[in-house]
Design brief:
This protein has a three-stranded antiparallel β-sheet. The chain is elongated and about 50 Å long. By secondary structure, it is an alpha+beta fold. The N and C termini lie far apart (about 35 Å). It is built from six helices and three strands.
């Protein structure tokens, strides 16, 4: 792991959540940003790391607490954590010799809001009332 790990802001992605896909088609810029987050979570180790960090007492986890449950090397875990950080899903901070990680709630809220399904009796998708200008652009 590098000597300095700085928190990564969720850049070029607005803090406000996108409307669900059932109400408005995604614009190109939003799709690129959101796909980075989905790609980062598509790996089983990264998904487990994300879950471990999110469920850890105090809302943050030391990298020393994240390496034990996996049958991979510590540098591999560090790589996976870097991918999650670069995707904007976790933040991190070096404290002495250890790095601590926490979930970026705004990023998870974006993903959650995007995937909300329309109610079964909703006419939001049938009306076509959205201009199709795209989400979050």
């Amino acid at each position: 792991m590098s000597n300095q790990v700085l928190p990564v802001a969720v850049q070029d992605r607005p803090v406000a959540c996108c409307p669900p896909m059932v109400r408005a088609p995604l614009g190109e810029e939003a799709a690129v940003g959101l796909s980075r987050m989905f790609k980062a979570m598509a790996d089983p180790i990264r998904l487990r790391l994300l879950s471990m960090i999110a469920s850890h007492a105090g809302g943050e986890a030391c990298v020393c607490d994240l390496t034990g449950p996996f049958d991979v090397s510590q540098p591999t875990i560090s790589h996976h954590l870097k991918v999650l950080r670069e995707a904007g899903l976790v933040g991190s901070e070096r404290r002495g010799t250890w790095v601590y990680y926490w979930i970026q709630p705004a990023a998870l809220n974006q993903l959650s809001a995007l995937l909300q399904a329309a109610p079964a009796n909703s006419d939001a998708t049938a009306s076509g009332s959205n201009s199709g200008s795209g989400c979050c652009e």
